[in-house]
Design a protein that fits this description.
With 259 residues, the chain is of the alpha/beta class. The model has no long low-confidence stretch (mean pLDDT 95). Bound molecules: flavin-adenine dinucleotide and FE2/S2 (inorganic) cluster. The site of flavin-adenine dinucleotide has 21 residues, from β4, β6 and α1.
């Protein structure tokens, strides 16, 4: 196991449904929570069962001294099962794993574009920005307003929906293009579905230092199975998303779907 990483049985404190099929589960975590930085992830499994067989990767949504939370859309076996667990039941967490976003600095202007389960990063990024007095703005996109979650933690949060039912009509990259007509951020972060990341890389990668959190499927989360390759830019060689990422500087990587 990588250094500064623990296997911990964590008790569920509560689960809230925060939008359609979308949940936040809070857990007690004495070992892992204090170590997490934004963009790092956990491998999550269920105690005393091998169903589902493989652990699932989750970004840490928020972390305090002794609690952390997971944000997820119940799409399959793992997430549906977590959503049904009761307070007092437990999950097995392995983490914190991987490399997250670069440390923020005071007065730095940061824009974070999120979509889908990438919205998990809003609370933990907002907390880190407020600690360092960085100026962070979130741009959160979805197909429709029903899929969007409100986050009290984020002082500056704008929405984009494909159907125009909430916020800007269009996708989050189109919203960023509009915003950039009036000025550029110092750093741009992206967490969300791969097509959104590809579009961010194309539109902004050469203009703003851009960091993208990739959602490559993972089996071990620790560099053992070689199952999470991410192509190195301009090379026939690969990073491992779990060990070298999941956050990469956009000009370091090529998306396979884009080749
Ligand atoms: C570094 C990293 C961080 C991640 N962080 C999060 C997170 O914070 N929250 C979160 O919900 N997920 C996150 N994921 C994805 C997560 O690991 C699971 O793949 C996902 O939650 C589905 O797990 P499942 O067991 O419910 O579905 P599975 O049974 O594995 O899949 C069921 C079906 O759903 C499809 N599917 C998988 N993911 C999605 C999705 N996001 N949207 C729509 N369909 C999907 C699959 O292709 C499959 O067809 C992350 C993945 C990585 C690699
Ligand atoms: S998930 Fe096994 S090497 Fe990355």
């Amino acid at each position: 196991m990588p250094g500064n990483c623990f296997l911990e049985s964590a008790i569920i404190v509560q689960t809230r449904e925060v939008a359609e099929s979308t949940y936040i589960t809070g857990l007690k975590s004495r070992l892992i929570a204090p170590l997490v930085t934004p963009g790092q992830f956990l491998m999550v499994s269920f105690p005393e069962t091998s169903d589902p067989l493989l652990p699932r990767a989750f970004s840490v949504c928020d972390a305090t001294a002794d609690t952390l939370s997971l944000f997820y859309v119940a799409v399959g076996r793992g997430t549906r099962r977590i959503s049904k667990l009761k307070p007092g039941e437990s999950l097995v967490l392995n983490g914190p794993l991987g490399k997250g976003f670069p440390e923020m600095r005071s007065a730095q202007k940061i824009w974070a574009a999120v979509g889908g389960s990438g919205a998990a990063l809003i609370p933990i990024l907002a907390r880190a920005a407020s600690k360092t007095s960085a100026d962070i703005h979130f741009y959160y996109g979805a197909r429709t307003g029903k899929q969007l979650v409100g986050f009290d933690e984020a002082a500056n949060l704008e929405y984009a929906t494909d159907d125009g039912s909430k916020g800007f009509r269009g996708n989050v990259v189109q919203l960023l293009i509009e915003k950039m007509k009036n000025g550029m951020p110092d750093l741009l972060f992206g967490c969300g579905p791969t097509p959104m990341l590809i579009s961010m890389q194309k539109e902004f990668g050469a203009r703003v230092p851009t960091y993208l959190s990739v959602e490559t499927p993972m089996a071990c989360g620790m560099g053992l199975c070689q199952g999470c390759p991410v192509r190195k830019a301009g090379k026939k060689d690969y990073y491992l998303a779990c060990k070298d990422g999941p956050v990469f500087r956009s000009n370091e990587i090529e998306f396979e779907a884009d080749l």
